[in-house]
Amino acid sequence: MNSAPSDKPTPNNAVRLVEISADEAGQRLDNFLLRELKGVPRSHIYKLLRRGEVRVNKGRCKPLRKLQAGDVVRLPPVRIAERAEVVLPKEGFTPEIVFEDDRLLAINKPAGVAVHGGSGQSFGVIEALRLNRPEARFLELVHRLDRETSGLLLIAKRRSALRNLHEQLRGEAKPVNKQYSALLAGDWPAEWRKQPRDVKLSLRKETVRDRERKVLLDPQGQSAHSRFTLLKAYNGASLVNVQIFTGRTHQIRVHSKGIGQPIAGDSKYGSTAFNLAMQDQGLRRMFLHARQLEFSHPADGRRITIEAPLPAELQTVLNTLESTHS
Question: What pairing do the DSSP bridges indicate for beta strands 288-296 and 150-156?
Answer without folding.
Answer: parallel
